Amino acid sequence: MEFDLLAIRTSITLALLSLILIFATAPDASAVTIVVNFVGGAPAANAAGGGDLTAIVDAAARIWESIYSDDSSLVLYVGWAPIGPAGTHTLIEQGGDPNRETVGLILFDNSGSVSFYLDPTPDSDDEYHLLTEQFQDLGGGPVNVARLLTQPTGAALGRTDLLTAALHEIGHALGLAVTNTSFAADSRDGVIRIADGLPYSGTVIPLAANYSGITTHIDAERVTYGSLMAGLSSDERRLPSDLDILADAQISRLSIRRAEVSETPPSLPAPSSGTAPVKAAASITAFHGLHRVN
Ligand SMILES: [Ca+2]
Ligand SMILES: [Ca+2]
Ligand SMILES: [Zn+2]
Fewer CB near the terminus (10 Å): N or C of the chain? Predict the structure, then answer.
């Protein structure tokens, strides 16, 4: 009898425990889910740091996932290939309402023309000693336009950060892609206007143009240096700025997870005071053509 009671208690406890586990491990009902699939290739011999491409792209995906609260999923195929520019993104499938990319391909260069830093600890930015945030009023109040980490140490010194390239290419997959029909519709006037309902509504994001027309990049000549979706240089890490976050939110009708934005990358709701001086556009000479995409 005593034994049976104990058995019953044990089974009730186990049942409760498994219920708790089910709830604890249930996926967030509303979250952007980015699934990363490695398709092959190996880094160039001049890459250093010892990190792994899939782990780095996964870390980049977690950063973007933490930013938006929509129930949406994106499958990304990633790999190394001798492409020339640091990274490329290609939209493979899109759909839904609102329209979003659902499947994409991201390749990183292994021709050796870019010397990548493969961060073995992609969840930590310890290799970069200085974080600079920039703010600029683009019509909707001073908004964060750059979260830039500089002063690299160790293997990060003199190299192009693969985590930054991954964050940048995922930024394309989340909306800023020429074949994305939402982007095509919104970019005809050369700017992305942040609509009511999003923070900093009234902000007008200028897009860069080149010989073939409007590009999928933020105009580095009109926005203070350091936006993730403006490009990237060696010896720096760029995290998504509020401007980058707003651009994809506007294009893909994504909701910004305001309650959780106080942590490292996004800090959307409260713009901090002060507009930092604009760094000379000369720094763009160090730009590693991230595009030639699409
Ligand atoms: Ca690290
Ligand atoms: Ca527009
Ligand atoms: Zn790009």
Answer: N
Q: Supply the mean pLDDT for the chain.
A: 85
The pLDDT tens digits for 218-251 are 999 999 999 999 999 999 999 999 999 999 999 9
Domain of residue 152: give its range: 26-286
Q: What is the value of pTM for the model shown? A: 0.82
CA 294 – ligand 3 centroid, Å: 9
263's CB contacts (< 8 A; 6+ apart) are 66
For tokens 């707003």, what's the residue?
246
Ligand 3 center from residue 131 Cα (angstroms): 22
Q: What is the pLDDT of residue 263?
A: 37
Preceding omega of 265 cis (within 30 degrees of 0): no
Query: Is 212 contained in some domain?
Result: yes
Domain count, the chain: 1
Q: How far is the CA of 287 from the centre of ligand 1 (A)?
A: 22
What does the pLDDT average to over 18-38? 68
User: In this structure, is residue 138 part of a structural domain?
Assistant: yes
Ligand nearest to the CA of 155: 1
